[in-house]
Amino acid sequence: MTTALITGATAGIGAAFARRLAKDGHDLVLVARDTGRLQAAATELHDRHGVEVEVLAADLSEEDGISSVERRLTDGRTPVDLLVNNAGFGNKGRFLEVSMADELTMLKVHCEAVLRLTSAAVGGMKERGRGGVVNVASVAAFVPRGTYGASKAWVVQFTQGVARDLTGTGVRLMALCPGFVRTEFHERAGMGTDNIPGWMWLDADKLVTAALADLSRGKSLSVPDPRYKVLMGAVKLAPRGLLGGVTSRTGRKYGPQ
Ligand SMILES: NC(=O)c1ccc[n+]([C@@H]2O[C@H](COP(=O)([O-])OP(=O)(O)OC[C@H]3O[C@@H](n4cnc5c(N)ncnc54)[C@H](OP(=O)(O)O)[C@@H]3O)[C@@H](O)[C@H]2O)c1
């Protein structure tokens, strides 16, 4: 029996991690802002799977929120064995159409929170000689795509670098790079998705199954779907200028309407 802490655990990919890990018998610490949804998720997972579920209401765009999760991760009385840094969001619009405050909030949640929570978790994991961290990035990390893509590129580089630094300690880190997943993400950002072809959409539960399999194989980077593996192969070969043009045009369609 181990304990997993998941940020953004009340919806989408984070909720899928919570369902799967509870089903596998892991105790959970669920983190998000909405207390009502956290309590409802905790009750459901406890009743269905018989695991212990704590809730921790925290806004990871605020200093208090990040430090309260850091405190939970460094509490040696109830160690966390798996950290899933998943909380995140999108901003609708191209550069200059998004306020500087919103750009900075994104960097706080996607980068500062991930840096600080990873750091808080891996110290104890290293001492215990085991543990894992999954940092949810995106395939947007590999294409020029504004602050969102840049923040996810940081997540990939950071995670793979730390994974290398911790080789041989028993602590595994993996950056997870999904493509489009059916969650609340696009609706929350006010993004239209009508022009995204059906074949590009992934199922959150299947994504999590593939991600956990990659983590157990010791991968530091997971692009968990054959369709996106092929696409990312093509992206590596394509000239950056061409890619920038394509993603910018795509952004115009599925960003501002
Ligand atoms: N959906 C996709 O197509 C897709 C593709 C690639 C990568 N991703 C990445 O996957 C991750 C999860 O996205 P999702 O699609 O599952 O989104 P989602 O369905 O909108 O869920 C987001 C979760 O994060 C929490 N959250 C948001 N802002 C937060 C904050 N400031 N502090 C704490 N919790 C916060 C939300 O709960 P509260 O609102 O209650 O806080 C919710 O539980 C993100 O990092 C996203 O960038 C998504």
UniProtKB/TrEMBL annotation:
InterPro entries: NAD(P)-bd_dom_sf, SDR_fam. One of its GO terms (molecular function) is oxidoreductase activity. Keywords: Oxidoreductase. It comes from the Bacteria. Coiled coil: none annotated. The keyword Oxidoreductase applies. One of its GO terms (cellular component) is membrane. Gene3D superfamilies: NAD(P)-binding Rossmann-like Domain. Belongs to the short-chain dehydrogenases/reductases (SDR) family. This is SDR family oxidoreductase.
